[in-house]
Design goal:
It contains five helices and 23 strands. The chain is mainly beta. The radius of gyration is 18 Å and the shape is globular.
Length: 332
């Protein structure tokens, strides 16, 4: 996850919140079925695009970014979106109050991963994704889904590091069989937020593991038989001395998306896109969405980009809330 000062303020971003929780200890959560809206405090502020001092801005070829329609966004924090290949399910991280420390989020009954199904009328009401037994302290985030397989990050007892990656399987309409992804991924490779290509062959991830160009870099590991091969740093022009993180590869394998510090003069992270070259390498990244835009996820046809946007005060001293935004590719 991003380690710059502004990003550290935003505890809703899953790895940061989870890491803080690991350092402070994990109280035992109490089973609950609290609706999302009722958990949001009365003094929470719902920011509109018109009130946003740092609205996200898209470059040429993309529509003006706007908050995702439907019941997804609230005055709480919606973050870490991921849309499935069929475009029918949206996963995201939610916490009702971005001001609350992570050690309190774990017992509020609502902070964690949520999912919404697309209906003929748009996105349906989100439902909580349960990935632990009722008596197990945990805090989950950064969901990735490919077919009936989920990867998510979590702080819970038995981790190899502060925040580990876990897997789960979709069976009979629920996610089940959650388990730690193991020492190879979590310790040896030090995999951070990740993406597996649609063909299941390549694992892209961010990490500050040794051998990088500085900060968080993007790496790739190729599937070999039943295991993942030694990670390779993507190098220039993708990686720099700054933090490149949260990769996403388009369904056709031709576009690599990620977030990194913006280069357009707007504060906060920005979303970049690199196009695969004829020789198989990745081309020079272009800044597609600026101003506190991060965690890109793209529909399979490449037409719609979802991302997280954090609202900050004009002086950048405080994060107010976070929403999921969308921008659409404009035909040339």
């Amino acid at each position: 996850m991003r380690r710059d000062t502004i990003r550290r303020i935003a505890l809703t971003t899953s790895f940061i919140a989870l890491g803080a929780l690991a350092c402070l200890g994990t109280p035992t959560p109490q089973p609950t079925a609290i609706p999302r809206l009722s958990a949001i405090p009365a003094d929470a502020v719902k920011v509109t695009p018109q009130e946003d001092p740092w609205p996200p801005m898209a470059g040429p070829g993309w529509s003006t970014p706007e908050p995702l329609e439907g019941p997804i966004n609230t005055a709480g924090g919606e973050d870490s979106p991921f849309v499935t290949l069929d475009g029918q399910t949206l996963y995201f991280f939610f916490t009702p109050d971005v001001r609350v420390p992570a050690q309190e989020q774990v017992i509020d009954g609502v902070t964690g991963i949520w999912m919404a199904q697309r209906t003929p009328d748009g996105w349906g009401e989100p439902q909580r994704v349960v990935l632990a037994s009722p008596d197990e302290p945990h805090l989950d985030g950064c969901p990735f889904v490919l077919d009936d397989w989920m990867v998510f990050c979590s702080v819970r007892p038995g981790n190899h590091r502060q925040v580990d990656l876990y897997t789960a399987t979709w069976r009979d309409g629920v996610w089940t069989d959650w388990q730690n992804w193991g020492e190879r991924i979590n310790v040896e490779y030090q995999v951070g937020e990740m993406h597996v290509t649609a063909d299941g062959r390549y694992l892209y991830f961010s990490s500050d593991r040794p051998g990088g160009l500085g900060g968080q870099d993007l790496w790739v590991s190729e599937r070999t038989d039943d295991d993942w091969g030694e990670p390779v740093n993507l190098g220039l022009p993708i990686n720099t001395a700054a933090n490149e993180a949260r990769p996403f590869v388009s369904a056709d394998g031709q576009e690599l998306w990620f977030d990194a510090p913006g280069r357009s003069g707007c504060p906060g992270p920005a979303i970049f896109r690199s196009v695969r070259q004829p020789d198989g390498s990745w081309g020079e990244p272009e800044e597609v969405v600026s101003c506190f835009a991060a965690e890109p996820t793209l529909t399979a046809d490449g037409s719609t980009l979802y991302f997280a946007h954090h609202y900050f005060t004009a002086d950048l001293s405080q994060m107010i809330e976070a929403d999921i935004y969308v921008t659409r590719r404009i035909a040339p």
